Amino acid sequence: MARINLLPWRDDLRKQKQKNFIVAMMASLGVVAFVMFNVHGFYESNISTQKQRNNYLLNEISIMNKKIKEIKELDTTREKLKRRMGKIQQLEGSRTVIVHIFDELPKVIPEGVYLETLSRIGSQLTISGIADSEGRVSNFMRSLEASDWLSDPRLTNIETMYDNNEQDSKVKKFTLSFRVVTANKKEEDDS
Question: Is 102 helix (H, G, I), strand (E, B) or coil?
Answer without folding.
Answer: helix
